[in-house]
Write a structure and sequence with these properties.
Length: 482
């Protein structure tokens, strides 16, 4: 063991507060966190173990390094694993170096592996990376400097290359024509556009090649990494806990973290509680932490594990993520779930099915009023914008954006018509393609956005009114969804 490692161990032990019995159980919990791919939490636990005891320190460093490698924190993995002198560390450091594109360093680490079988496998797999068909960013930039777009075609993006060529050459040609007629303002504008397209295309070609090379590398590296990071030589074995010393004070501590809004820390403590003493309440709390932290996918997962105590929260999480069908499916397990399904149908704008879920009441009458609300039509907005740019936005009372759309379409349209009238067909074509068409299509998209926003405001206003008459079973869902 080198002096650096010994010094670090001594420093950490001075800060130790936990007892040895607790350490054994924490190792099992940390390994479980790793196996469930909660690598950040696993690292936190492994580091806590280093502060608690010197037992199995080398293994802990190895596990921390492997966790960092799984998170693709390659530099941190290297700093941790470079303290070790065994085949597992050499293999993992080599993988880390390879990911950082340090091929020579990776080869040196792989050559240190003493196990003959593992060494031969590494050499056979590693040789593939020496012959990958990379392309040169410099060549791509040079090609685009000669012929705009050629570098992108070289990177396998022929369509982008053709488009870049048209934009660059077309802008330059229009600028030249305006200079010939001494129209210096439009000549300067199109000349500036041409230069920006030209130099942007050179830079973009280099970036396209880099992306191409990354895809080539990842195609080989990912399966290589998975094979060796999960091989018997590098695999983490989960320790079985033979005894449990679990203090109820940990629950109060986890609840305190939750109440203080420290959700990441609370998740770890609730997982610890659930590991030592499985409990639906802990699962429920973990789900709440994930939901408040904005991770709805994991929130749903833990609410499902919590069972019946989390049904309302589970429905709310599904609604927040936009998964209405899953939310309705959960309603089947609840008494009076029919009314809950009706509320979800309302949120989906399915008012016919929603009405059938409620008994005759004032609430049902208010629900039926959704069909009579003066919603705006997307088709009508697009049709109006097709004939008169900006009119689709006027239709939704979005007058400011409608005026801007009309103004920009008018100016660019006049320039295009004038160019065609003066037989400057290239100029007219480019103005139409680059400017007018963009404003014209943008006006129709803006009209659709305005309709959506207008209808949503109208719907939310009526929903707020409807909530006053909602049955009691629906109110918890309203609170969770809001």
């Amino acid at each position: 063991m080198n002096y650096m490692l010994f010094g670090l161990m001594l420093f950490l032990q001075v800060q130790a507060k936990a007892d040895t019995a607790g350490t054994v159980h924490t190792i099992g919990f940390a390994d479980w966190l790793y196996e469930t791919q909660d690598y950040n939490s696993a690292i936190t636990e492994y580091k806590a173990l280093l502060r608690c005891s010197s037992n199995d320190t080398l293994s802990l460093f190895r596990k921390i390094g492997k966790s960092y490698l799984s998170l693709e924190e390659n530099n941190l993995a290297y700093k941790c694993l470079s303290r070790l002198t065994d085949d597992t560390a050499y293999t993992l450091i080599g993988i880390s170096s390879l990911k950082e594109d340090d091929i020579e360093s990776a080869e040196q680490w792989f050559m240190k592996v003493e196990d003959e079988s593992l060494s031969l496998k590494l050499q056979a797999e590693y040789s593939k990376f020496l012959n990958l068909s990379y392309k040169s960013p410099a060549t791509a930039g040079f090609l685009s400097a000669i012929v705009p777009g050629l570098g992108r075609a070289y990177a396998g993006r022929t369509g982008d290359g053709i488009f870049s060529f048209i934009l660059t050459i077309g802008s330059a040609a229009v600028s030249y024509r305006y200079f010939q007629t001494k129209d210096f303002i439009p000549a300067t504008i199109f000349g500036g556009l041409g230069l920006s397209f030209y130099f942007g295309n050179i830079y973009g070609s280099k970036e396209s090649v880099k992306l191409y090379n990354e895809k080539v590398f990842e195609k080989e590296f990912y399966p290589f990494k998975q094979r060796f990071i999960n091989s018997p030589k590098t695999q983490i074995s989960v320790k079985e806990d033979t005894s449990i010393q679990w203090a109820s004070s940990r629950k109060a501590f986890a609840d305190t973290l939750f109440n203080e809004g420290k959700y990441d820390n609370a998740i770890l403590e609730y997982k610890r509680l659930n590991f030592f003493a499985p409990d639906s309440h802990s699962q429920y709390r973990i789900g709440q932490c994930y939901e408040k932290a904005g991770d709805l996918k994991n929130a749903v997962r833990y609410y499902e594990k919590a069972g019946s105590c989390a049904y309302y929260d589970l429905i709310g999480a599904h609604l927040k993520s936009g998964d209405y069908s899953s939310a309705r499916f959960v309603c089947d397990d609840l008494i009076n779930g029919k009314e809950l399904r009706g509320w979800i149908y309302i949120l989906e704008d399915n008012y016919d099915d929603a009405s059938e879920c409620f008994e005759d009441s004032e609430f049902k009458q208010k629900t039926n009023q959704f069909k009579l609300l003066p919603y705006k039509s997307e088709d009508k907005a697009v049709l109006l914008s097709t004939f008169i740019p900006g009119s689709g936005e006027f239709y939704t009372h979005n007058f400011k954006n409608g005026l801007l759309t009309l103004l920009f379409n008018g100016i660019t349209g006049v320039l295009a018509v004038k160019s065609f009238h003066e037989h400057r067909y290239l100029d007219g074509t480019l103005i139409t393609m680059l400017l007018w068409n963009r404003f014209y299509e943008g006006g129709m998209k803006n009209a659709l956005t305005s309709v959506t926003k207008y209808n949503e405001i109208l719907k939310q206003k009526h929903l707020k009114e409807l909530e006053k008459y909602a049955p009691e079973i629906i109110k918890p869902i309203i609170v969770n969804h809001n």
